[in-house]
Amino acid sequence: MPPAPTSDWPAVQLHIVTGKGGTGKSTVAAALALAIASRGKTVLLCEVEGRQGIAQLFDVPPLPYEERRIAHGSGRAGGDVYALAIDPESAMMEYLAMYYRLGRAGKALDRFGVIEFATTIAPGVRDVLLTGKLYETANRNSRNKGARQYDAVVLDAPPTGRIAQFLNVNDELAGLAKMGPIKSQADTVTTLLRSRRTAVHLVTVLEEMPVQETADGVQQLHDAGLPVGGVVVNLVRPQDLDTEARTTLLRRTVDPAGVAEELGVARIDDGANLVASLLEEGHDHAQRRALEDEQRELVAGIGAPTYELPKLAAGIDLTGLYELAAELCEQGMA
Amino acid sequence: MTRATRAARTHPRVGPLAAVTGTEPALDVDALLDDPDHRIIVCCGAGGVGKTTTSAALALRAAERGRKVVVLTIDPARRLAQAMGIEALDNVPRPVPGVISARSQGDPLDPSSTGSTTGKPSGGSLDAMMLDMKRTFDEVVESQASAEKAAQILANPFYVAVSSSFAGTQEYMAMEKLGQLDQDARRTGRWDLIVVDTPPSRSALDFLDAPERLAGFLDGRFMRLLLAPAKGPARLMTAGFGLVTNALTRIIGAQVLRDMQTFVTAFDTLFGGFRQRAQRTFELLQADGTAFLVVAAPEPDALREAAYFVERLKEERMPLAGLVVNRASRPPEGDLSADRASAGVERLRAVGGTSPAAEMTAGLLRLHADRVRIVERETRLRRSFATSHPDVATAVLPALATDVHDLDGLRTIGDLLARSAGAGA
Question: Do B287 and B193 belong to one domain?
């Protein structure tokens, strides 16, 4: 890795990563956590959707409601990455134990189905519990004795379509809890989420719907007063052929004889059919690149810093994650 | 996620012992669409795999092959919604303009195309609608309660919150709407096929669990607890009751508790109705006339989700028609392997040619190697699905260069779906 420039987000402690389904937001969140750790920081990577996506990406057993060390940032100075799967039931029991010392009443709440009610039905409460736990990991206090301090927390967040609602916990609770402890809990969380210590990054791919949804998401975050971070363009096609080469491919003006000759140099003598099919693949690629470029311009128009990650032909494994993390470091996202 | 779901998801993924690594049977989409016994097709799968487009394409194809179709979409892309004439969210099915009915000429190979014994007019039609979750919920309340009581419920802040943001309401209301469309279809004969898109849930399983979860909530211990002061026998719970209400008052405040109690009391009389409706919808999904299509992309997450879903459908005895794998990379022509192509690139580099032709050739070889590797990976993922689920008929759709925004685009998808029969190998 070349000497990396400094991070674009030095003041940010809480990185929230969202994205439309299928854009790879979990992969990007994991890569970002690794990238931050490679700068010598201790990082916590959280998920809140009960999917065990982190465990699958890092190839470790399913995560419990407990911070576990799952990886080490690259390089000698690399810090550790811990992971936590936050589920609302456990967050609620922990919260009650930490703040109310309910004792027998806590168990009674569970027995009477109150915990299940609060975490699955009561609107907004689920999100307040999830973001509340997130807040706690970023602001360790004396109530959670001996808990680890993190330099940064990265959240694999709910998808773009739901992100503003998820983070806008106060609005969700409005009309339900106008006062009382839940309301003040939500207020504290909101203060952090709206501060410069937080950045909401959006992951997209260079296709129409995801780019449109990203632009909409940015607007909704702005409207809700939530800090927009960067836009990560994921799964970018290989950028092998330059504009000129692509233009000749699109116009079908490439000289097949020249390619055939070079294939001979490369000792691939599969005949004229191969030349024709390679040129066809090249044409197809150039066409898609042109469409991607249109979308790339729209992404640039969103006005947030952008980062690009390649589509790895081998798919995403631990090696791939470190590769993507190095990219993010180089581009200054971490 | 409910406890029940979690249990289902930890269920081991086991295929038949005789499973052979290999190819899946092909999904015959036209046979599925043409079979008059199929009255409902449900498209489900993880988010971002093209469910909405797939369901719209299937609906259009069925209509143009002579079925009278209504498609229920959840969240279509804006331009597609406009093309289908459903950009206004009014919860009512509207005719889609521009549907071409091939049946008007009659199909000699298909006896049902000329058969008018059932009293069906020849020629298909397509209606479409977009789900309005809150309005659907309101309509259910209005149909179940007296006008006065309904008004009281609709105004309750707790109801407003539950009906517009309760995780699962959208899934539940999609199923509710399906039930309504089915009743309408049977009563009026306006439709003979309903195609349903499912909400972009965190998990593809959510919509199956939603009715049960909502019914469970309405019938749950906590609701009974809130109703306890009003109901005699529930007084047996008194021992824990004081403890719980005290704790609740401390945590959420007395006002929220009062709102909840008002809501629950008002809702109490509707419980039976809701349970029955949820139960009926579930039975509708199990019925012979229903077919599930699981939609996925050739990615580990989407296929894992598809596998969970296939197993869950089996558990619930719900009829699975097959798997649609969208966005597959096109295999390149010829048999130049990725390794040979990469070795060729190395040789070109070693020779040091910098002519445009050399750069072009190296670039094309790198692209080819990349594409072959991606296709190989996708094929491996699909094979491993097929190995553990050998009986699931599959259609594989190549990735399109552009998004679909009009009926022509949907027709192309429909053609590809129908043609992919046999391409699964």
Answer: yes
Residues B139 and B178 grouped into a single domain: yes
Whether residues B262 and B395 share a domain: the answer is: yes
Say whether A282 and B364 touch across the interface (CB within 8 A).
Answer: yes
Q: Quick one: B210 and B326 in the same domain? A: yes
What's the distance, CA B328 to chain centroid? 19
Whether residue B117 has pLDDT greater than 50: no
Q: CB-based contacts of B151: which residues, under 8 Å, 6+ apart? A: none
Distances from the Cα of B390 to the Cαs of B273, B293, B312, B375, B418, in angstroms?
41, 16, 16, 21, 20
Rounded to two decimals, the ipTM of the complex is 0.85
Are B357 and A165 a contacting pair at CB < 8 A?
no
Question: Cα separations (Å) of A314 from A71, B258, B297, B305, B378?
Answer: 21, 57, 16, 21, 10
What chain A residue is nearest to B203 in terms of C-alpha separation?
Answer: A51
Pairing of strands A68-72, A80-85: antiparallel
User: What's the CATH architecture for A14-238+296-330?
Assistant: 3-Layer(aba) Sandwich (3.40)
pLDDT tens sequence across B50-73: 899 999 999 999 999 999 999 998
Distance from CA of A168 to the nearest CA of B (A): 13
Q: Are B102 and B50 contained in the same domain?
A: yes
Q: Write out the residue range of the structural domain in which residue B363 sits.
A: 338-379
Pairing of strands A80-85, A228-236: unpaired
Judge if B274 and B344 occupy the same domain: no
Identify the CATH number of the domain in which residue B74 sits: 3.40.50.300
Same domain? B176 vs B89: yes
Name the residue in chain A with its Cα closest to that of B80: A209
Measured CA to CA, the distance from residue B375 to residue B329 in angstroms comes to 6
Write the pLDDT tens digit of every residue in A143-178.
Answer: 787 889 999 999 999 999 889 988 987 676 655 666
**B161 lies in the same domain as B221:** yes
Tokens 């990560």 belong to A232
Q: How far apart are CA B98 and CA B47, in angstroms?
A: 29
- What's this model's pTM, rounded to 2 decimal places? 0.85
φ, ψ of residue B132 in degrees (nearest 5): -110, 105
Asked if the C-beta of A180 comes within 8 angstroms of chain B's C-beta atoms, the answer is yes
